[in-house]
Amino acid sequence: MVQKKTAAVAVNAAQMLTRDRDLLPPDRFMNREIGWLRFNQRVLELAEDTTLPLLERALFLSIFSSNLDEFFMVRVAGLKRRLATGVPVSSRQDPREQLREISKVTHELMERHAACFHTSVAPALAEAGIRIVRWNDLTTEEKQQMHRFFRRTIYPVLTPLAVDPAHPFPYISGRSLNLAVRVCDPHTGRQTFARIKVPPALPRFTELGGQRFVPVEDVISAHLPQLFEGMEILEHHAFRVTRNADLEVDEDETDDLVKSLERELLRRRFGPLVRLEVEETISDEILTLLREELGADEEETYRVPGPLDLSGLAQLHELDRPELKYPPMVPVEPRVLAHNDFFEVLRRSELLVHHPYESFATTTQRFIELAASDPKVRAIKQTLYRTSGDSPIMEALIEAARSGKEVIVLVEIKARFDEQNNIRWARKLEMAGCHVVYGVVGLKTHCKLALVVREEDDGSLRRYCHIGTGNYNPRTARIYEDFGLFSADPEVGEDLSDLFNHLTGFSRKKHYRRLLVAPHALREALLRQIQHEIANHEQGLPARIRIKTNSLVDEEIVDALYLASRAGVPIDLWVRGSCVLRPGVPGLSETIRVRSILGRFLEHSRIFVFANGGEPQVWIGSADLMPRNLDRRVEVLVRIVDPGQRSRLMTLMDLAMADSTSSWHLNPDGSWTRFTHDEEGNPLVDVQSTLRGDRYLRVVDD
Prior knowledge:
Blueprint: H1 2-20, H2 32-48, H3 54-85, H4 95-127, E1 131-132, H5 140-154, E2 161-163, E3 177-184, E4 191-197, E5 205-209, E6 212-215, H6 216-221, H7 224-227, E7 232-243, H8 257-268, E8 273-279, H9 284-294, E9 301-304, H10 342-348, E10 351-355, H11 361-373, E11 377-384, H12 392-402, E12 406-411, H13 419-431, E13 435-437, E14 444-445, E15 448-455, E16 461-468, E17 480-487, H14 490-504, E18 515-518, H15 522-538, E19 545-549, H16 555-566, E20 571-575, E21 592-596, E22 602-603, E23 606-610, E24 617-621, H17 627-631, E25 633-640, H18 643-657, E26 663-666, E27 672-675, H19 687-692, H20 695-701
Parallel strand pairs: 1-6, 8-9, 11-12, 12-13, 14-25, 17-22, 19-20, 20-21
Antiparallel strand pairs: 2-4, 3-4, 3-7, 5-6, 7-8, 10-17, 11-15, 15-16, 16-17, 18-25, 19-23, 21-26, 23-24, 24-25, 26-27
């Protein structure tokens, strides 16, 4: 009777969601792009944290730079493109005003980033014996060494390009480092502008020996007289351009997606400018010339102290200075797999693994490699979104196909910035005899799935499955935090078979047994579950929502969470990146807490926990709470049924949200406050260090 009543209330809650959204305040959403910039600000705060190992701080400066490049190449570029074509960007903010706000915040962050390097990280590196020096600081011996290096390695590949009536202003490729040079002919007095592109194959910082480095542009600048022999060098300045790198392929209008994408990749190099970075010492004359030729307005121009492109600081992290890095971590192998047959383990029970604390190589990679070499395996089906250039998993699939197994690989060739790598793998897989497909027209296939069909001793066929929150990439698996579920449950096997048939063939299947699949059912299911929590709370049953996601920007989901909060449901949100929800607003989100954790590892897993009246529903999967994930991608969540595994995930959520844990807290105005110590000055618990010690994993395995 109670269940029927609860279900009826849930139906009413669904009707209320549609009705009550219009009653919510219009300023309830924060700006998504500014939210992302605040995420990158948190990365910068790690670089500013003097308690962290020094080379890790340098690496965070590098990550900040790389992140910001991608933000401009995709997010800012998208805003500009939509503005130029008249497509609405936001019903709540004028696109021009949004771009102005982005420019203001970005200028502040880039200045702060440069200050962190010059006043904190660089001096600390020097004190530790690692020095980035400019040309004038080199010793005579070092200059001689660089003269030889220049003639041998740099000079042959340099091409100075003059600008005059016979030589138009050259094209400046995206993310390239360049020198703007003004020279004068001493005989005629004529002045000329020239551009020199720094060869991208060169290391960002040239090693002098003894852990001393000089920016590569300094080496080139010191040898300009050799490039412009007989000319007087009047001035030279480094500059850098960021361009639109978002791809547009109309899949409905092409007969060959791969060829169309390759053509678009070539055009990516010539995308419109979205940012011009120059050294703050640049003259007004040269800056005016660059802005006119490149079409950069004031808001797109960023003057910062040199050296530019500090993403190159990642080079320093490769130094053999373990005392300046995080302590080494050796991922563990789940005890249940030690000395046991992998497939036999899965026949007994499902296995939940947590990377990078548990080894990717001895779990996920081993699963595919065993399937590829096992003569009893008949077929392997797998999705591929991102992987490394030398992926052992892809090599295993190739060997499986060559040995006669049926191998089907769904390669997402539209995975941003991995398009070319995935095209290469797709062709290599096809040449080996694998069946390669590219998913569903109009959608990106983002789910992480592997299905192995194996003949058992009794002659029957059994399906072994892997569903993950992260990519099949051995390299990123060492630094990305993710979960993976291995299962031989017939229901999961049926689900994956149905889903692969949908992806490789034609079907309109919407509902599965243990899976929630976007774009056809995931949004609806999440909204229904939130509404169910509202109904349970109103009936006095246990009600609570806990979600871990990379981004929370979907307005319909946010509104559903607001309504749940107004009904009194406690809500905990663990969001790594951008969040448009305002927590703690009286009458709107008083029961909502939002936390963010950044550190040594990139928090990447997605977890959804619903109290469900005392019988918790726990899901993991690939989907973030963004319109693209819920409406324009194939995403998968799998329901966790093992009570111990559910408890493990809920305990992790509670640990992250505890006041005793070090984290950032989101404020109603969109700012984030970092908490690292309690009121007595004692350090708060570091989630990643706790898991890195593997204490939690040992308890769970026991």
